[in-house]
């Protein structure tokens, strides 16, 4: 009987998947039938079906699954991620709403979080960005300042043992960061494109790079709009980790924390215990989850 092999999905294009096998080789694989709920980061069992082709027989249970969704469709982003690294930069300016949406998704999937403030070689805009991130530091998030153009040594140890997904808006320096961490990244990307025979298309999809035996990095373009339609209002509330001790304390059980009397969150903002911008972001995201 033909042997099954273990591997991990490193890229996907349509129904074609690229699997890295235990020996490091890359094999294009298809799923059986119309099934296509496989995503970058998935751990799979495959069988060879031809010289340079395989079939995915099984997907291992996932430890986490990131998706984004609007009212109409849901899109898988990556599986088996243990850490999300949110890349923002001193310039151009970044959206704290996008950051917050990533944090909500991270909380929902029990992921470690690291916020990287890039381009700190630019002192004036870096100071402004640092200020914008202050509320996030204050509630316990780890913000690492660096310059991807100069040195990424402080980031390296924080990747060990993790499958980290890098997310960030365009222009934050995500590619520069990946190239600094993985000098072979461009070659690896070319190899993925060649094997999948999809040319530049793969660049719009997530890609998994291996850092060492226990650590991987997933580059995941296009999370400008991190739709959270698949999460309930309660799950979104919980993603604002500093709201925790106030939840359930409002006068009305179905309080929307907008202008209801006896709202524990509004009171906490008035007292300065919760940052006003954070409550505003909650109201914004709750009103428009997608
Ligand atoms: N000053 C400075 N510029 C940087 C740094 N990192 C990246 N840049 C510049 O910022 C610009 C955007 O960097 P990219 O790495 O292409 O950004 P990206 O996030 O991958 O953007 P997309 O490709 O649009 O997704 C480039 O001109 C980089 O040279 C840094 O640490 N300091
Ligand atoms: Zn309330």
From TrEMBL:
GO terms for molecular function: GTP binding; GTPase activity; metal ion binding; rRNA binding. Residues 79-224 form the EngC GTPase domain. It is found in: Cytoplasm. It is an enzyme of class 3 (hydrolase). GTP binds at residues 118-121, 168-176. Residues 68-226 form the CP-type G domain. Gene3D superfamilies: Nucleic acid-binding proteins, P-loop containing nucleotide triphosphate hydrolases, Probable gtpase engc, domain 3. GO terms for biological process: ribosomal small subunit biogenesis. Keywords: Cytoplasm, GTP-binding, Hydrolase, Metal-binding, Nucleotide-binding, Ribosome biogenesis, RNA-binding, rRNA-binding, Zinc. Its cofactor is Zn(2+). InterPro entries: G_CP_dom, NA-bd_OB-fold, P-loop_NTPase, Ribosome_biogen_GTPase_RsgA, RsgA_GTPase_dom. The keyword Nucleus does not apply. The keyword Transferase does not apply. Its EC number is 3.6.1.-. Pfam families: RsgA_GTPase. One of its GO terms (cellular component) is cytoplasm. Zn(2+) binds at residues 250, 255, 257, 263. Binds 1 zinc ion per subunit. One of several proteins that assist in the late maturation steps of the functional core of the 30S ribosomal subunit. Helps release RbfA from mature subunits. May play a role in the assembly of ribosomal proteins into the subunit. Circularly permuted GTPase that catalyzes slow GTP hydrolysis, GTPase activity is stimulated by the 30S ribosomal subunit. Monomer. Associates with 30S ribosomal subunit, binds 16S rRNA. Belongs to the TRAFAC class YlqF/YawG GTPase family. RsgA subfamily. This is Small ribosomal subunit biogenesis GTPase RsgA. It comes from Gallionella capsiferriformans (strain ES-2) (Gallionella ferruginea capsiferriformans (strain ES-2)). The gene is rsgA.
């Amino acid at each position: 009987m033909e042997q099954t092999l273990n591997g991990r999905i490193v890229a996907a294009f349509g129904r074609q998947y690229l699997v890295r096998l235990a020996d490091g080789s890359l094999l294009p694989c298809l799923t059986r039938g119309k099934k296509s709920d496989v995503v970058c980061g998935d751990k799979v069992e495959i069988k060879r079906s031809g010289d340079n082709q395989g079939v995915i027989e099984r997907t291992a249970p996932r430890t986490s699954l990131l998706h984004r969704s609007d009212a109409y469709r849901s899109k898988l982003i990556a599986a088996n991620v243990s850490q999300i690294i949110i890349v923002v930069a001193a310039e151009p300016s970044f959206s704290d709403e996008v950051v917050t949406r990533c944090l909500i998704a991270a909380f929902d999937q029990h992921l470690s979080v690291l916020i990287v403030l890039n381009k700190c070689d630019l002192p004036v805009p870096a100071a402004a960005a640092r200020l914008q991130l202050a509320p996030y530091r204050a509630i316990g998030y780890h913000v690492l300042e660096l310059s991807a153009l100069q040195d990424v040594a402080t980031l390296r140890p924080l990747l060990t043992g993790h499958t980290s997904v890098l997310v960030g808006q365009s222009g934050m320096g995500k590619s520069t960061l990946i190239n600094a961490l993985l000098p072979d990244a461009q070659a690896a990307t070319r190899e993925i494109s060649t094997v999948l025979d999809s040319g530049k298309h793969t660049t719009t999809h997530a890609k998994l790079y291996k850092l060492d035996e226990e650590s991987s990095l997933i580059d995941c373009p296009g999370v400008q709009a991190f739709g959270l339609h698949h999460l309930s209002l309660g799950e979104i509330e919980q993603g604002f980790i500093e709201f925790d001790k106030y939840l359930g304390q409002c006068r009305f059980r179905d309080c929307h924390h907008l202008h209801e009397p006896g709202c524990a969150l509004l009171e906490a903002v008035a007292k300065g215990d919760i940052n006003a911008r954070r409550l505003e972001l909650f109201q914004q995201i709750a009103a428009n989850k997608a």
